[in-house]
Amino acid sequence: MLPRRLKLMAVVGLLLSPPVVAEAAPQTIYALSQNSGLDGLLGYDLSNQDPSSLAFKPSSFDFLNTLSSPTSSIVSIATSGSTVYALSQNAGLDVLLGYDLSKQDPSSLALQPNVFDFLNPLTVPPSSIVSIAASGSMIYALSQNSAFDVLLGYDLSKQDPSSLALQPNVFDFLNPLTVPPSSLVSIAASGSTVYALSQNAAFDVLLGYDLSKQDPSSLALQPNVFDFLNIYQLPTDSIVSIAASGSTVYALSQNAAFNALLGYDLSNQDPSSLALQPDLQKFLNIDGLPTSSIVGIALEGSTVSAVPLPGGLPLAALGLLTLFATSKFRLFPLTGQRQNV
To answer: Based on C-alpha coordinates, what's the Rg of the chain?
Structure first.
C-alpha cells in the first residue's frame, strides 16, 4: 500500500487546483439592414453595451456581396458558429449564402460568401421559403403556400457535393394550432427546438416544436410551446423576425420610426401570466444608410465550455492519478494483473 503521505498529497492537489470555469461565448445579435440597392449586416455585441443607453449601438457594420442578379433580394438571415447565413431569392430560385466571419478579407468593401448553394424546397408552386434558422450544421427553412406551412431541414454535413442543390433531410408539416387568418412569419432554432412566430391582426404567438419529442406517426409536427407575446409597444408596432439562443427568444419589433429588440427568457416567466413578458427591451441604432430598414435578426449561438485554468492542470492530474492508484480496486495495478488489494 502506498504511504499515507502520498494520499495526503493527492487530496491537497485536488483542493488547491483552481476550479473548472464556464466560459461563455460573446453574445452578438446580427441584423439585416436593407435599402433599395444594398444589404448590410449589423452586429450588436450584447456584452459590450452601455446599460444606461436607450438603444444598442452596433459593434460592426458590413455590406454583403450576394453574388446574385439585381432582381434577387435577401429575405432572412441565420447564424451558426462564426457563419452568418442568408436566404437570397428571386422569382424562381432560393439560394443559401454563407459568410464565415472568421475568414473574411479585412480590406474588402463587402463580406464575401464562402457558401453558395441552391435550395431544393421539394414543394410545388406557389410555395415559397419565407424564413431560415440554423442550429449546428442544420439549416431550417419555413416553406409556405396559402394552405400549408412546411419545415425543411438541410444538414450541411450530409449533402452530396455533386448535387446542383441542397436536398432537405427534414420535411414536415407544421401544425400552428391557430385559426385563420393567422400565418407563420419567422422561425428560429435553439438546440432541438424550432420556434415559429404566428401572427394575425391582433396577436403574436410563439410556437415551439421540440423535434426530439415528436410522434413519428403524426402527419404534422405538434407544438410543445404555445404562448402569446406581450410586446409592450404601440399598437402600430409589429414583430417581423425572431431569433433564439438557449432559453431566450428574441423578437424584432418595428414601426415606421423605430426598431426595438425584445428578449423573452422562457425559463423566467410567470406561469400564471396570459402572455410572455420581455426581460429585455432596447431600441436598435441602425447607423446605416438613412433609407435603410432592418428586415431580420439572428443570434450567434451561445456556447458554454468547461475550461480548466492552466495553472491547475498539474495539481489536478496528480490528485486524480494518485487517488486512483490508492483505491481499493485497481484497473491496472502495479503488478500488471487485475486484483483486489
So the answer is: 25
> Are 296 and 314 in a shared domain?
no
Q: Is 213 helix (H, G, I), strand (E, B) or coil?
A: helix
Element containing residue 15 per DSSP (H, E): helix 4-16
Using CB atoms within 10 Å of the CB of residue 66, give its burial: 0 to 12 exposed, 13 to 18 middle, 19+ buried.
buried
Phi, psi of 286 (to 5 degrees): -75, -45
Domain with residue 271: its CATH number is: 2.120.10
CA 21/CA 308 separation, integer angstroms: 6
pLDDT digits (tens, 9 = 90+) for 218-250: 999 999 999 999 987 655 678 999 999 999 999
**Taking the model in full, what pTM does it have?**
0.80
Same domain, 332 and 216: no
260, 283 in Cβ contact below 8 A? yes
What DSSP assignment string belongs to 267-326?
GG--TT-SEE--SEEEEE---S-TT-EEEEEEEPPP-EEEEE-GGGHHHHHHHHHHHHHT
Q: What are phi and psi of 48, to 5 degrees?
A: -130, 45
Mind listing the pLDDT tens digit for each residue in 103-134?
Answer: 999 999 999 999 999 999 887 667 889 999 99
Domain count, the chain: 2
Helices vs. strands in the chain: H and E counts, helices first: 2, 29
